[in-house]
Design goal:
With about 575 residues, the chain is α+β, with helices and mostly antiparallel strands. It is built from 17 helices and 23 strands. The strands form 5 sheets. The protein has a 5-stranded parallel sheet with strand order 2-1-3-4-5, sandwiched between helices. A 5-stranded antiparallel sheet has the order 7-6-10-9-8. It has a 5-stranded antiparallel sheet with strand order 12-11-15-14-13, sandwiched between helices. The radius of gyration is 47 Å and the shape is flat. The N and C termini lie far apart (about 100 Å).
C-alpha cells in the first residue's frame, strides 16, 4: 500500500537553504542517516523559491544570513505562497530579537548552528520531525472534519446535535425530509418540540439515561412531523464530553422504518430535479414542495399551501380531485395565479400513492410552466400568418407585374420582320421588372437610385439627367411606374440611341408627376396608355416642341380607395 500524503510513515522531504556548500553537504549527510528524512539543497533564496514552485516539500530549513535574500525575507515569501509548510530558521547568531521576529512571522522553530555538526544535525532532525508531525496531524483533523460534514449532510440517517439543556445546534437534511422542518427553523429550538403526545414517559426515561453520561442504543421511539403526523424511528444518543469529563453536547442518530426511508429518498430525489414536484395529503394539503415548484409558483420557503390555493378551488374540487378518486391519476393543462397576482399556466400530472406508514393516500404532483411556451407558440403562429400574408401579397404583385409585362411585349404586327429589335426591347422590359424586386426593401422602393439603375440598364441608353425627389413607392405602384418609364425611355431612344435624356419624378399636391424629355419618339404604344390608366389611375400627355416631352400624372397610391387589378394592359 502507498502511504497517504500526510501519513506519519511517509518519509519527510526537506529543502535546506544555505550559502555554505560544505555545510549543505554535511547537513544532508547527517539528516539522511536518520533514515526517515530526505534532503534537497539550494545555495540561495532565489533558487529555493524556484524549487518550491516545481516540487512538494514537507518542511523548509533556511540559513539567516545569505546574499540577495536573507532568511526572514525568504520566510516572508514562503508564508505568502506556502502558508502551511513548516519553516525552521537555522543560524549561528544568538540574538533573541531575531528569534522573536522569526517566530512572530510564522516560523515553526529556530535552530542554532554549533561546532559539533553531528549534534546540531540531530537537534535539527528532532525539530523537523515535530514540526512536520504537527502539520500532518492538523491536515488529518481537517480531513476528518470534512468527512464528518459530508456524512452529516448526505446520510440517510437522521442526525441532530443538541446541548444538555435541549437546544438544537445542528439538524441534517435527512430530518428535514422526514419532518418537513428545514434546519433554519429547527436550530435554536428545543428538541422536545418533536416529541409527540403520548411519548412523554419514554422521553423522561431517555433524558434520565443520557444525563448520567450513558449512551442510548436503538431505542424505539416516534418523531413528530410538521403536519402533525408521527413516524416510528430507531433512536440512539451519545454524549460528547470535554477533557474535564463535563458533557457539552449530545448527538442523536435515528433511523426511520424502511418505508419511511424510501419516502425520504424519494423526497431527496425530487429536490434535485428541475421540474416542479409536490406531495399533498388526500384533502389537498401540501406537505412537500421542491425548489423548482416554489420558483414556478412564486411561493416563499416558509409558505404552507393547499392545492386549491395554487390551482384555484374550482379546478381542484371539480376536475382534478374527482379524477384522482376515480382513476388515481390526472394530466392536463391548468391556469394558476401567483401570490403577486401574475397569471401563468401549468402542464400538470398528478398520481395517488398509498403511504404504508401513515396509511394515508397521498398525491404526488409534477408540473412544468407552459406560459412561455404558449406565448412562443402564439407568437410563432402570428409570425407565420404575417409571413403567409406577405407572401400572398408578393405573389399577387408578381402576378400583376407579369400581366402588365405581357401586355407590353406583344409583337408589333406592322413590322414582323424586325424580330431582333423586338427581342431586345422585351429583354429590357423583363430587366426593368426584375430591378423592382431587387430594389424592394420592406415592401417599398426608393425611386431615385432605382431610376438611375433603370436608365443605365435600358438598351442604347447614354447620358441622362435625373430630377427625382426622395420618394418611396409601394412595390405594386413601383412596378407600373417602372414599366411605363422603361417604355418611354425605349421609345425616346429608338431613333437616336445614346442621346441625352432628362428623367424626373416629383411629388405634387394631387399626386406625382413622371416626366421624360429629350427624345424624338414615335407614338406612345397603346399598351403604355392602358398601363397608365389601369395600373396608376393616371393620365399621359405628350408635347412635341423641339423634341418630345412626355408627362404622366398619377395620384398617391395610398389615397386611392381601391385599386383595380392590373389587367392585360
Amino acid at each position: 500500500m502507498v502511504p497517504d500524503a500526510d501519513s506519519p510513515s511517509r518519509p519527510i522531504t526537506v529543502l535546506v537553504i544555505d550559502d555554505d556548500p560544505d555545510f549543505l553537504d554535511l547537513t544532508k549527510c547527517y539528516l539522511e542517516e536518520t533514515g526517515d528524512i530526505r534532503v534537497e539543497t539550494a545555495r540561495s533564496g532565489d533558487r529555493a523559491l524556484r524549487l518550491l514552485d516545481e516540487r512538494i516539500y514537507d518542511a523548509v530549513v533556511s540559513d539567516y544570513r545569505m546574499p540577495v535574500m536573507d532568511g526572514l525575507c525568504f520566510l516572508d515569501h514562503v508564508q505568502e505562497h506556502h502558508p502551511h509548510m513548516p519553516f525552521i530558521l537555522s543560524t549561528g547568531f544568538s540574538h533573541d530579537d531575531l528569534i522573536r521576529r522569526a517566530l512572530g512571522m510564522g516560523a515553526a522553530g529556530y535552530h542554532r548552528k554549533g561546532p559539533d555538526l553531528e549534534v546540531t544535525s540531530a537537534e535539527l532532525a528532532h525539530l523537523i520531525r515535530n514540526a512536520v508531525g504537527r502539520q500532518r496531524a492538523e491536515a488529518a483533523r481537517e480531513r476528518e472534519h470534512g468527512l464528518i460534514c459530508r456524512v452529516f449532510h448526505t446520510s440517510d440517517d437522521l442526525i441532530v446535535f443538541f446541548t444538555p439543556d435541549g437546544t438544537v445546534t445542528s439538524w441534517n437534511p435527512a430530518i428535514s425530509l422526514l419532518t418537513g422542518v428545514p434546519a433554519r427553523e429547527a436550530v435554536g429550538r428545543q428538541i422536545n418540540e418533536w416529541i409527540p403526545r403520548g411519548c412523554e414517559a419514554d422521553a423522561r426515561e431517555i433524558a434520565a439515561h443520557i444525563h448520567g453520561g450513558n449512551r442510548l442504543d436503538h431505542f424505539p421511539f416516534r418523531c413528530l412531523r410538521k403536519d402533525g403526523m408521527t413516524v416510528p424511528i430507531d433512536l440512539s444518543i451519545s454524549p460528547i464530553a470535554e477533557s474535564s469529563g463535563a458533557i457539552w453536547m449530545y448527538v442523536a442518530v435515528a433511523r426511520p422504518s424502511t418505508e419511511q426511508r424510501k419516502q425520504c429518498l424519494l423526497k431527496r430525489t425530487l429536490e434535485s430535479v428541475f421540474v416542479g414536484c409536490l406531495i399533498a395529503q388526500q384533502d389537498g394539503s401540501v406537505t412537500f414542495l421542491n425548489d423548482a415548484a416554489r420558483g414556478i409558483m412564486g411561493l416563499d420557503p416558509a409558505t404552507t399551501v393547499h392545492l386549491a390555493d395554487i390551482l384555484s378551488r374550482d379546478v381542484w374540487e371539480e376536475t382534478i380531485s374527482p379524477a384522482l378518486r376515480s382513476d388515481g391519476k390526472w394530466h392536463g393543462e391548468v391556469s394558476a395565479v401567483r401570490p403577486d397576482g401574475s397569471a401563468y399556466r401549468l402542464d400538470l400530472s398528478a398520481v395517488v400513492d398509498h403511504d404504508s406508514v401513515t396509511h394515508d393516500l397521498t398525491t404526488v404532483v409534477f408540473c412544468v410552466e407552459t406560459t412561455q411556451r404558449r406565448q412562443t407558440e402564439d407568437d410563432l403562429l402570428e409570425t407565420l400568418k404575417e409571413k403567409s400574408a406577405l407572401l400572398g401579397g408578393a405573389d399577387r404583385r408578381v402576378l400583376k407585374g407579369l400581366r402588365a409585362l405581357s401586355g407590353l411585349i406583344r409583337p408589333d404586327a406592322s413590322d414582323p420582320g424586325d424580330a431582333e429589335a423586338h427581342l431586345k426591347e422585351c429583354e429590357g422590359r423583363v430587366r426593368a421588372l426584375s430591378l423592382v424586386y431587387e430594389s424592394t426593401k420592406n415592401g417599398r422602393v426608393e425611386m431615385r437610385p432605382h431610376f438611375s439603375a433603370l436608365a443605365a440598364a435600358c438598351p442604347g441608353a447614354g447620358a441622362h439627367d435625373l430630377d427625382v425627389e426622395e420618394i418611396s413607392l409601394d412595390q405594386e405602384t413601383a412596378i407600373a411606374v417602372t414599366l411605363v418609364l422603361n417604355e418611354l425611355i425605349t421609345s425616346a431612344l429608338r431613333d437616336g440611341a445614346g442621346m441625352r435624356l432628362r428623367i424626373g419624378l416629383q411629388r405634387g399636391i394631387e399626386g406625382y408627376l413622371l416626366t421624360v424629355e429629350g427624345g424624338d419618339g414615335r407614338e406612345i404604344p397603346e399598351g403604355v396608355l392602358q398601363l397608365v390608366r389601369s395600373g396608376l389611375h393616371g393620365s399621359l400627355s405628350v408635347v412635341r416642341e423641339g423634341g418630345t416631352a412626355v408627362s404622366v400624372r398619377f395620384p398617391d397610391p395610398e389615397q386611392v380607395p381601391a385599386r383595380r387589378p392590373l389587367e392585360g394592359a
